[in-house]
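_Full entry_
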Amino acid sequence: MYKGEVIHFIGGLTEYIGQLEMSEHLNGKGWYRLNDPCVLVHEKKGEEVRTRISRLGGPKRVYRRFVDIFIPDAYPMEIRVLDKKNELYNVYFEAVNQVVPDRIVLPNLSLVDRPN
């Protein structure tokens, strides 16, 4: 039912968004695998609430392209399917497909103008 859909897990300390893999999980009941996972962070500034999205992968994307989530039966968790016409759906794919720089070049003191 959810295969290939972008799913938003709401509840707990961290909100995840990603493509749900519907095969039976190796760890058993209550475990879910999200492919190309991202984390949602909500910031409130005055009356405005901003939502930021960040792909899980670490520096140089050292982690695999999935995350396993365990949800106990007694734990309230909301699972929403993102609409393909929604802005969050487009932002999710921008975050997943974002090119990560291989290196960051910082100028050394010889390249910086210093007052005489």
In short: The chain has a mean pLDDT of 81.
